[in-house]
Give the backbone structure.
Amino acid sequence: MKKISVVVPVYNVESYIEECVESLIKQDFDDYEVIFVDDGSKDNSVNKIKLKIEGYADFRIVTKANGGLSSARNFGLQYAEGEFVTFVDSDDYLDHGFLKKMLSAIGDANICCCGYTEVTDAGQFIRAVNNNFDKTSDSIIYGNVIESINFIPNAWGKIYRREIFSKLHYPEGMLFEDFAIAYKVFYQEKVKFVDEPLYYYRIRKGSIMRDFNENIIEHKFIILNNIKNFLEKNNSLALYQDSYKNGYLFHGIFVTSCIIINQKSAGGLKHIDKLRLMADGKIFRASNIIKSKSLDSKVKLYLLLLKISPRLALLLKLTQNKIGKKNGEN
């Protein structure tokens, strides 16, 4: 049995897959296996993987009908045999020291998280991101998981004891699948952190954060409602009430509205109105926005404008987007 299993869902990434495979081959750690899950790819991705992994006995490809990222991860987990498991998106890649450093750091914990580097389509550096928050207690860490503002909620950039997924599965057919399960994955688990950007996350066109989907609003509020129900069921809502409110304001309102505006521009006003109508009025309040210690001043200003006048908020965001493009920002 290998120490760690690497699960890599693959779907139509022929332009990026070779760099991903190369980063896995070049890990400075030996005791691991890699499972590439062909999720019904229609391009040349799988052929490129085959050429790269020839002669590597611990690298293999398993194939399934297309079902999306969550489905592919769940399928790959069925083949994983390692004590630990990690996930890599097939258009991303790893620092050569990822496996060794993460396994060295995890100790007796069940999860270890690292930071990441954002790169462009062409692999050019954008910025480095780490889990920048107070980690002095398990409850503080879990509160940050609930918020997922300073904590990175993505499945990748982490190693997990595989037994965590014996009863948990990624939600199939759900947008924001990582945010949709993080609160369960991390609940009452001991977590360690490596404050280095050991994962390379590629910003691509076609990302859920850049392409509008009519289900975005509904799915985000379903997830937030599920988080609340989970906390209530485990008698933890009172303890994490502020974290839940911050996460609701940030992900439910701010991030969702930004996705709408980025894709719909001036035509997004009707979707913004829909978002405001669906939002919980007891949480989306000026007092909660102002007193939040987790939301930064720019997010607070935007949310307050959105509360008062969606048109002004829309104008502010469109202006910021234009300035960002002129300055070469993503």
Q: What stands out?
A: The first strand starts at residue 4 and ends at 10. The chain is about 45% helix and 15% strand. The CA atoms of residues 5 and 80 lie 6 Å apart.
